[in-house]
Amino acid sequence: MATNAVANAIANGPDVYSTDDDPELVRDAVPFGLKTMESLLEVVPRHRGLLLAACRGYTQYAYAFVQLDADLLGPEDYDRAVAMRGRAERLYLRARDFGLRALEIDYRGIGQELRLAPERAAARVRAKDVPLLYWTAAAWGSAISLGKDQPALVADLGAVMALVRRALELDESFDGGSLHEAMIVLEALPPAMGGSAARAREHYRRAVELSRGGKAGPYVTLAQSVSVMTQDRAEFRRLLHKALEVDPDRDPRQRLATIVLQRWARSLLAREDELFLEPDTLENGSEP
Fold first, then answer.
1. Domain-by-domain residue ranges, the chain?
2. What are the CA-CA distances from residue 277 to residues 170, 220, 228, 233 (Å)?
3. Which of 75, 150, 266, 285 is the most core-located residue (most Cβ within 10 A)?
């Protein structure tokens, strides 16, 4: 009973990390919290709230403090960056597994079914589990993005798409447009894999609308995916400057994410010439 009470408190308590304005403090504090969750899950392995918290926590930590750190390294640190991306991939897969374990509680066999018949499997999930759909897909998709040389992992892309599309059907406004932000990434895939830059921009516009322009994520996501893919340097620059204009204090729940993403936006602007083959010759790019 005491373990369940602690698990409930961790799973349902206030998120003191996302509202913090000190990424380095959070970087040092999060691992202890994550391992505490894992220890509790050894005792209460079917605690849905704790499984969701672990899935979300490992995904956020892997992105903000491992993958982005690797991406910020210069070419002289190539070997270190490769090792860090490998670590990020492993953390994403751990997060995915927590999410699938949580889904298995109410939807037995869904983990295997997602690989065999993803649309049918995702259709089983009800609206109360939209957060699980999102975070499981975010973890799984992020692992795939880092493991493109692993055919077995890339083959799971259909499952990720099915999870995000089902969540959109159930609640497109979840977390201020985060599902549409995820679709920007999925639609930035090559046309041969079902992607569409036009649809990505539609999801971008809806994400901005749902967040009321208060999240840096949609701007950064479209810039680093579609703008780079289409080689629209002016659009890239404009989007990243929009991300830098977001006030981290406008929505305290997004404060840490905004600070981290703005750090990444500055890095992308500094590396602009590495991402585009031709110099910018236009004053304005296409309006996203």
1. 172-279
2. 41, 20, 10, 10
3. 285
Torsion of CA 161, 163, 169, 175, to 10 degrees: -100
Q: Helices 2-12 & 23-43, crossing angle to 10 degrees? A: 150
* pLDDT tens digits for range 143-175: 999 999 999 999 999 999 999 999 999 999 999
- Residues with Cβ within 8 Å of 105's Cβ and at least 6 positions away in sequence, in order, are 46, 48, 51
Residue 56, Cβ neighbours under 10 Å: how many? 22
User: What was the pLDDT predicted at 11?
Assistant: 60
C-alpha separations of 16 from 11, 12, 22, 135, 255 in Å: 12, 12, 11, 19, 11
Rounded Cα distance, 163 and 102, in Å: 14
Fold of 172-279: 1.25.40
State the amino acid at position 96 in one-letter form.
Answer: R
The answer to whether the CB of 239 falls within 8 A of the CB of 222 is: yes
In angstroms, the CA 36 to CA 23 distance is 20
Residue 193 confidence (pLDDT): 85
Mark the ranges of the chain whose per-residue pLDDT is less than 70.
1-14, 280-288
Q: Which amino acid is at 176?
A: G
